[in-house]
Amino acid sequence: MLRKITGLALALLLSLLFTAAAFAADEEKKASEWGTVTGQARLYYFTQRNKTTGDDFDNIKESFALGGWLKYETPWLMDHFGGGAALYGTMPISGELNQRKQGGTGLLDPANNEGFAVLGEAYLKARYSETEARVWRQRLETPFINSNDSRMLPQSYEAYGFKSSDIDTVQASLYWVDKEKARDSEVFEPMTKMAGLDGTDGGVLMAGVDWTPVDDYPTRFWNYYAPDLDNTFFTELKYLFGDPQGVAYELLFQGVDQRSVGEQRAGNYSTGEAGLMGTLKYAGISLNVGGSIVDDSYGIRNSWGNYPFFNNLMSYAFNRAGEKTLLLGVGYDFSRVGFKGFKADVKAGFGDTPDSGRNASPDRNEYDLNTYYDFDGELKGLSLLGRFSYQDADGDLGGKDGFQVRLRLQYNFQLL
Length: 416
Fold this sequence. Notes:
416 residues, mainly beta, Porin, 18-stranded antiparallel beta barrel, 19 strands, globular, OM_porin_bac, porin activity, Porin_dom_sf, signal
């Protein structure tokens, strides 16, 4: 009962802030001597529907919710010390669209399709030169541990570490990540428990380097060591060439090596994935063609964030054992024809997996349509997102077709 009341109060607060910020949308807001107050309000509808038997999409997950976050961050004290805190919250809008048995959408509590509120961020920070350290609850944005902010609320973590840009062209990071709050939960759980190991209390040592040795050649090298679970190494190499004002090209390579370590609590495994994608951009049009392959021994474990590979679509990550994937995409920026702020793209992923053996699984294809609109002028900060996905799975090995709809109205604002 208390959680419901707290969620309702928070949602009402967010609504009032949304209104107040809208009236002041045309005023420039800057950090004051007292710090900054920023926020985000979201109105979100989500449904995923799958077939069980026959042609009806009768396995339903559905939520319609209001929520967001409100954050205060101090100014730098003595130019070296500071802190921040953010309150996260979400609540259902309509009982008909938020039935208890249809939870699990990522917008609300998965067990009851109800709202909640939580102190999602609360950290102290310190800096010297171009190095900044943060401790306790915070958002992290790295390849395998990230905010996964595609529903109502972001994921956040209890973590301790630093990032540094003191070396030219390099940003280095080192963190011990102890606990995670999932995007549909108010509880911070140990990282190993979030990876499926109930009864454990382990964390992850995370280290990474983002390096741009020369212009147009950004690289990433990240490693995640979870004692007695596994070690995951991720690399990304990108090459940009051509004329940004004319025809531009991009080549992207991504690779991951993952293997069990220590007591191997999730089993003994060693696997990997590699992928290559090419992109062509011209006159607002972008074309993507990519392919990837996963080792046929085991699939890739992805326990703590949004999967970083380019072939990760709305529903399928295409990272199962032995999976070979083809990705095709086309997008267009409609500002070229007078519709400023409007973009759309279509993506299709085709996944082929073994038909026999211990890693046999159904072949799966996915087709996504994504539309984005950022308002301008007096409505600056307001955006509208519409996404649709159709999943086509091979029924011979137990696959189930399905479709997904996401509609999101979002407003970003700054009060101080």
